[in-house]
Amino acid sequence: MNKYKRLQILTRLQNNIPNPTTELVYSTPFELLIAVLVSSQTSDISVNKALAKLYLVANTPSALLELGIDGITMYIKSIGLYNRKAKNIIKTCYRLLELHNGAVPQGRAELEALAGVGRKTANVVLNTVFGWPTIAVDTHVFRVCNRTRFALGNNVDLVEKKLLKVVPDKFKMYCHHWFILLGRYTCIARNPKCSSCIIQDLCEFKNKIYPGM
C-alpha cells in the first residue's frame, strides 16, 4: 500500500472517531493495567463484567494481595486462563509495592518486567494512561493491517515496527484504537462487513465480501 492510501485511511478513521480510547473500563492506571493483563484471549465485555465485581472489593495492589490467588480467581473464573492470570496479578502486585510504592511505572522496561505484561500490554498502558504515541498490536490490529495491506508482517512485532515507520506522528496516538475498533466491529475475522466499511474503497483486500452480490 502506498503512502497516499495510508494517509487517506488514517484521515477517514480520524474523521469518523476523532478521539477513540480503550473499551476496557477503568478509573485508575492500576485498574487499566490489570484489565489489559487479563484481557488476553478474552473479550473486553467479559473482562469489564468480571473486574467490575472485583474492583468493588479490591482495586489496589495491597488489597488484591490480601485477597490472594484463590480470592482473585473467584472473580475472574469466567475469563480464559484465569488461573495463570490470577497468579500474574499477585506477582505484579508484589513487584509494584516492592519497587514502585504501589504505583504503575511510566517506563516500558519497568512495565514489561511485571508478570504477564508483554509489549502489547505495556503499549496500551503507556498510550492510554500516559499519552505515549505507541501502537499496540493485538489480534484485531494484526488482522486489519495484513488484510488491508496497510502494514504487512507475519508476527505482531513486525507489524508494529512497520506501523511506527509508516504512520505519521500526528496519527500515532490513536492509530491502534482505530484499527482495534475496525477489526472488532467491521473487519471481523470471518465474513468481514466490507459493504459497511468506511475504508472499503481504499482497502487492498482481494476477497471483499458484499452480501447479495
Structural class computed from helices and strand pairing: mainly alpha
Q: What count of structural domains?
A: 2
**What are the low-pLDDT stretches, counting only 5+ consecutive residues below 50?**
none
* Average of the residue pLDDT scores: 95
CATH topology of the largest domain: Endonuclease III, domain 1
Could you tell me how far the N terminus lies from the C terminus, measured between alpha carbons in angstroms?
A: 26 Å
Rounded to the nearest angstrom, the radius of gyration is 18 Å
- Considering DSSP H and I runs of 4 or more, what fraction of the residues is helical? 55-70%
Shape summary: elongated
CATH architecture descriptor text of the largest domain: Orthogonal Bundle
Compressed to H and E, one letter per element, the order equals HHHHHHHHHHH
Please describe the topology of this protein.
Elements lengths: L2 H14 L12 H10 L5 H14 L3 H16 L5 H19 L7 H5 L6 H10 L10 H10 L7 H11 L2 H4 L2 H11 L28
Helix pairs in contact: 2-7, 3-4, 4-5, 8-11
Core attributes:
213 residues; mainly alpha; Endonuclease III, domain 1; 11 helices
Structure description:
It is a single chain. The chain is an all-alpha fold and 213 residues long. It folds into two domains: 3-20 and 135-196, Endonuclease Iii, domain 2 (Orthogonal Bundle); 29-128, Orthogonal Bundle (Endonuclease III, domain 1), CATH 1.10.340. It has helices spanning 3-16, 29-38, 44-57, 61-76, 82-100, 108-112, 119-128, 139-148, 156-166, 169-172, 175-185. The longest helix is centred in the middle third of the chain and has 19 residues, at 82-100. The model has no long low-confidence stretch (mean pLDDT 95).
